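Retro notes
What went well: the complex prediction finally ran end to end.
Inputs used:
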Amino acid sequence: MEEDEIAGYVTAYLKKKGFTQTEKIFQEEFQTNKTNSSPLEPDIAKHILSFSQLESGPARFHDGYSRLRSWTHCSLDLYKHELLRVLYPVFIHCFMDLVAKGHVQEARHFFNTFREDHEMMHLRDLQKLEGVLSPTHLEEMEFAHSLRQSKFNIKICEYSYELLLQHLHSTQSTTILGIINEHINFQVTPGQPSSIVDDPEAVTLSGSSQDAANQINQKEIHWGLLEDSLEERLEKASSLLSDSEKGEGEAKEGETEENKKRPVEGGKQGASIKKVKKDKGGSATGKNTKAEVNTVSAAPRVKPELPMPIIPSEVEQSILEDLRNRVQLSSVALPSVSFYTFLNTHNGLSCSSISHDGSLVAGGFSDSSLKVWDMAKLGEQTASSLSQDENDTSQNPQMGQSGGGKRQYTLFQGHSGPVYAASFSPVGEFILSSSADSTIRLWSTTYNANLVCYKGHNYPVWDVQFSPVGHYFASSSHDRTARIWSMERIQPLRIMAGHLSDVDCVQWHANCNYIATGSSDKTVRLWDVQSGECVRVFVGHRSMILSLAMSPDGRYMASGDEDGTIMMWDLSSGRCLTPLIGHTSCVWSLAFSCEGSVLASGSADCSVKLWDVNTSTKVSRAEEKSGNASRLRSLKTLPTKSTPVYALRFSRRNLLFAGGALAKNG
Amino acid sequence: MSTVPKETIEVIAQSIGITNLSPDVAFALAPDLEYRIREIMQESIKCMRHSKRTILTADDVDSALALRNLEPIYGFTSNDPLRFKRAAGHKDLFYIDDKDVEFKDLIEAPLPKAPLDTSITSHWLAIEGVQPAIPENAPVEAPTEIRKSSEYKEDGIPVDIKLPVKHVITKELQLYFDKITELVLNKPASIPFRRALISLATDMGLHPLVPYFSRFVADEVAQNLHNLTLLFALMRLVRSILQNPHIHIELYLHQLMPPIITCVVAKRIGNRLSDNHWELRNFSVNLVASICKRFGNVYHNLQPRVTKTFLHAFLDPTKALPQHYGAIKGIAALGSRLVRLFILPNLEPYLLLLEPEMQPEKQRNETKRQEAWQVYGALLCAVGQCMHERAKIFSNLLSPPTRASSRPNGKAMIAMSSKRKASTENLMQQQQPPLKKLATDGPGGVVPMNSMSVDMQMQGSAGAFSTMMGVPNVGVSSMARQISNDNTMGREVGGQQSKVSSILAQAWKDDIDAGQLLSSVYELFGESLLSFIPKAEAGVFL
């Protein structure tokens, strides 16, 4: 680097910026110092050089990127796949830099030249970015905004990193170097490059508060089950039963005593939730000592943070009866599937839901109506035979006389926009529906009437879900929030804000202390219901998340996206255990069997798939160390006759109910 | 730059009454327009997803506009797809073809039918993980199931229906089977039967029924040889099952073949003289041929066994003429190679046998005479086809009628053989076995060794041919040869006749000169054979 040259560049810079005074001084000083020249730091020299090059226009990006690209493709095979990861972030930032500088035409040309390279992995992102054509768009579009504000994390081995830096320095592609420095966060790992299998965590985009997600995931969560659950009580009862018949009688007495106690507590509950929560916690610990005597399932027990509603004793009895008659499912004992097909929907069915015992089926329509069928009353042999297994649990005595006499269903009208979600309360006496009119309505199946209209969201409510114990429910909306409600209040109890785009689906954790939300920003978040804080962020999906399911033991969560990928997450670590790949289209619905051994998924590709949860979690955990984490086991694919599967529900006896509307042709 | 050209902006501006839009404004608006459209589309896709659809409708776009607090676009309904038409003369300009509707027509039109109300039906998608084969389920059998049933088959085929069967057939399949068999037995000419045949040929999941069907066919054929229509129906049933790509029929071939072959070479089919049993025989022959073609390479002894059966029928003079007819047809359908191997050597004696039957003065029985003519026709057909193929293969190396004339010119022969290499590559490939062994093995031809290369090649191909036929076939072919030798010996009357018979006796060899063969066959059949030979070749020979 000749000193004169640098001086030339510096003066050019000063001239350009109009620092005439400085320039003069610089010139003078330069002349005087020429004799005792202290060589400039090479780095600084390069920076100065690069500045002059930066000015040389948008072609720099194009050239720089194409040079990096061809170099990467010619690099050593062993390190190539690692280096290839660098290309995508560089590509999109080059593009956005070009747009931000106003070289729209060049940006478009650049984009179209190289987009093919990334289409396979990032097609959706590219489609979004394609439309960005002016600096204001960059500001406006949340996706571009988040890209600009965040950094890519790329895992790369030491040698690859060195190679990359050497290349960038030797070719003096400072433009690219700048982008890499600004937007990529290298996590250099010593040793050999990682395996070629596309590790989902190799390239991650961290949110604007990059460390926040990591920090969030450091938090402790109590994924254990609720103490004193009905299941636990059943086991207690059965163990006593095995002791002696007399024991059983006592157990029952004990239960009824508890039930007597509870209403008293319930009376207090109405007042203030937080206050009562402590009371409840106290009483729960009291019972806990009793529960601990039994050797129950491995899942740890936690206290409920919400005051729990009271279950009427006859309902409890029927649930216990169901639990006793539950079929054990496993990879060798697959469930029976009963399929409810909606006919003549004229493309209007936008959601469907099945009650916990499978006897009630609700459909939400785009003409704002909600229709509920009582399958037990349909009078068909199949339905009645079905209901005999399942219906003795249904405690809703009257479905009401359906309007015209001819109609098979009960029509609920009240919404003024497409009904996007419906959810049955655990016992089946209430239905919640959410609609594009930004309201949620509570309906009674006993009285066939609208009870409450909950207003709070400002935009269409995409999803609503009753909590596993009833009484509380969660909703998610286009306004990028999820909200927790209780039936008795028309205002939400909690508002969960944090997602960067629409919150598309919501699901309760088995212990009711957490809810999970899936969003169009391709993340799933877990929120603490009590504090309203986000406690986990799950990153890994490549498209909008459409469905969520929580395993009954509370340890795992499954999420399904628009592309047909299902991911199984470990809640405590916040990591993806394994992606379950098999569906070819949107996964509309997911359900865990009651003991958590089988996951069912229903998709727009007209099939129900059954997955073995035990192997897909265990094997991957074992293989996590070896670095190969994509192992899954699809047990069975059950194709339907051109019927996309909208809803799935395992009954308490482990019968799987599925619902969907027959597509016209296909 | 933007996918929206600025002309679009100008057109839109004009349509809302702005005429003096500056190009700069249009230039600036175009990219923004594209961005807004993309934004709306993004929102409409969200609405589409939440309506659980995979096809975007006009409603979704309207909801997306509503989300942005924009007025929806009126005049579009989701029900009928919009028909865009290209404006004449403009490549990228489209408009919606809206027809004018007369008020009068609209008012007078009868009310459309009310759409059917939404309803729900329920069915079992799976019972303990297994999909029942009911109409509500997709007609795709899980592959594991098929495997299971075929595994079962290997264990033991239910030879007798009365035996306790291990696997249980679903009620639906039982009904299906009952229905099909009833159609076969009672209404073989009806349209439902034709539909049933189509269903048999295409439906999946029929595999469990195959043993029952093959058993059914075998039983019915054995009991109802007099009932021609029933036999025909049964053969059509077999054909449909053979056509079904989802059925692994090969495991049942041993059970299916006997009834089919019975239909080819049975002594008496149908109880009336008017019954056209020839047609049934032809139909069944085609079945046999297709089976041999499909499974011949998998089951090596299939074709030899079939051939043996036919040959026995053909060479037994005590058998009835319809049986001979079937046998000849059968051999001919299996390929011209077999015709050369079995029919040509026996052609002359057989014709001598047949001739009296064909002449009205010697055979008084009208029916018998007709039968004889049918057999003659079949024979002519078989030989003619065979000759036609030979002529095709050797059309480029037609040699003069006598071999002797070509012998002195050894070089020419070699050249010819290289030519042949190109045309009959498959024959050449069989030349691999060592010469010595073949020289001893080849029982028929000890040819003078003066033109080494050609002879070697001929030997090789002949030997390879017999080895290819497989072990069981050797017995048959050698037997046939013996018979033919006997015949020729007994029939050495001398002169032309004996030459013909000796040439025909050599016909099984691959290398027999086509010209010689043809001329000798021509002597037996006369002009009627000429229709099988391409004109050009015929001119050379005759």
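What we learned: Chain A touches chain B through 76 residues (CB under 8 Å).
What to try next: split runs per interface for comparison.
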